[in-house]
Structure formats: structure tokens, C-alpha cells
Amino acid sequence: MLPSGRKANGGLPTLSARRLRASRIVELLTARIDASVVAAAAGLSPSTLARYQHFVPPQNEEAAVALLRGHLQ
């Protein structure tokens, strides 16, 4: 077992539940799942999700227009 912060063979970082959770939250936000749904599933308040927003890539113009017109992806 590796001490916390040490790297496993191959130089990859050790797995962290916190990082896995953050990755999943960003993945759901990137898929444009409603923030209140993501927050409820993660046991957070919707305002807490703001810290993850800068990892979410911007939506392309075509998809944004479709969402504004009420068409789901």
C-alpha cells in the first residue's frame, strides 16, 4: 500500500474518491444534466456546483440554439 500522495508504478497518481467524484460531477454538467439534479445526486446544494463550472467546456453554438428553442439533445 502506498502512502498518501505517493505515485504508483508508471508515475500515475493514486486513486482518490474525491477526484473520482469531481470527475463524475463535471461529466454530468458537461452532458448538460440539470444542476439541481446533479447536486441532489451528489448530496450538494446547487450553488456548491459553481466550483466545478470552470472545468465544463462551453457548449457549441448549434447545441445552444437547439436548447434555447426547447429541443433536447
The averaged pLDDT comes out at 86
Oligomer: single chain
Structural class: mainly alpha
Percent range for β-strand residues: under 5%
Query: pLDDT under 50 segments (min length 5)?
Result: none
Count of helical stretches: 3
Beta strands, count: 0
How would you portray this structure in words?
With 73 residues, the chain is an all-alpha fold. It has helices at residues 17-30, 35-42, 61-68. 41% of the residues lie in helices and 0% in strands. Helix 1 runs antiparallel to helix 2 (35-42).
Which features does this protein show?
extended, mainly alpha, 73 residues, single chain
Secondary structure layout plus pairing:
Blueprint: H1 17-30, H2 35-42, H3 61-68
Helix pairs in contact: 1-2
Write a concise synopsis of the structure shown.
This protein has helices spanning 17-30, 35-42, 61-68. By secondary structure, it is mostly helical.
